[in-house]
């Protein structure tokens, strides 16, 4: 059945759209209100390792940010907002995997290129993407700079989160599709085996016409 006339695919896309816009609204609300929450509660995201690690770059830039001139409240808002936005992105990645309207597709040759880009992106974010005031070129517009405001750093973080979770969602969908294909192929082979055995059982044994005995009168 084509995708346009499939009500199940339309329903899944609607569910994904509802989740997407709900999380966008929640992300904006969180960003705006985070600085208005009590500082003691917001600082849990800076001082507790698990909450800080909800976005992996909070771990890598922690030492650098603490040494900058931002106030205690600004530091806490920075880590808390990034952790919460990362949690929303991760939630949407799971929803996209569960309600994905993808049909069975063949493997793409572009997967090797996607794998290279994914490894490069994640590796760069983990090991090299710190504060850099000397960056030039296209990357300079989104590079973390020591003189950036907290909200500017959060905005640049959102760009990184978007790329990170797009690639993560892609590979989750690839893994899900591979698992479905393997299950379907395994199920079809297991169904063909009993049918073939039953056909062999109903066949009469083969005898060569020259070696068969003539019927007795």
3D architecture notes:
With 217 residues, the protein is mainly α. Helix content is 67%, strand content 0%. The protein is built from 9 helices and no strands. It starts with 6 loop residues before the first helix and ends in a 15-residue tail after the last helix.
The quaternary organization reads as single chain
- Main beta-sheet annotation: none
Which shape, going by the Cα principal axes?
globular
Strand content: under 5%
Could you give the count of β-strands? 0
Q: What structural class do the secondary elements suggest? A: mainly alpha
Query: Which residues form runs of ≥5 with pLDDT under 50?
Result: 208-212
Q: Work out the helicity level.
A: 55-70%
Give average pLDDT, whole number: 81
**Radius of gyration from the CA trace?**
28 Å
Order of helices and strands: HHHHHHHHH
| Count of individual helical segments | 9
**Straight-line N-to-C gap:** 63 Å
List the helices and strands and how they pair.
Blueprint lengths: L6 H27 L5 H4 L1 H4 L1 H4 L4 H4 L1 H5 L5 H27 L12 H17 L22 H53 L15
Helix pairs in contact: 1-7, 7-9, 8-9
Kindly list the characteristics that best describe this protein.
single chain; 217 residues; mainly alpha
Task: Compose a concise summary of this entry.
The protein is mainly alpha-helical and 217 residues long. Helices cover 67% and strands 0% of the residues.
């Amino acid at each position: 059945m084509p995708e346009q006339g499939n009500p199940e695919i339309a329903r899944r896309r609607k569910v994904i759209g509802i989740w997407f816009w709900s999380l966008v609204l929640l992300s904006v609300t969180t960003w705006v209100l985070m600085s208005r929450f009590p500082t003691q509660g917001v600082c849990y995201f800076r001082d507790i390792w698990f909450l800080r690690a909800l976005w992996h770059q909070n771990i890598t830039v922690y030492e650098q940010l603490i040494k900058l001139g931002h106030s205690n409240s600004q530091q806490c808002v920075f880590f808390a907002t990034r952790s919460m936005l990362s949690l929303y992105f991760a939630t949407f990645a799971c929803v996209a995997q569960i309600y994905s309207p993808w049909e069975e597709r063949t493997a793409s040759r572009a997967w090797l290129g996607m794998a290279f880009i994914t490894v490069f992106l994640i590796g760069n974010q983990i090991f090299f993407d710190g504060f850099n005031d000397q960056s030039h070129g296209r990357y300079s517009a989104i590079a973390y700079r020591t003189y950036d405001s907290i909200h500017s750093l959060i905005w640049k973080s959102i760009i990184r989160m978007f790329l990170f979770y797009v690639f993560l969602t892609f590979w989750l969908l690839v893994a899900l599709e591979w698992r479905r294909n393997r299950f379907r192929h395994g199920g079809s082979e297991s169904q063909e085996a009993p049918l073939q055995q039953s056909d062999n059982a109903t066949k009469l044994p083969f005898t060569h016409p020259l070696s068969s005995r003539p019927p007795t009168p």
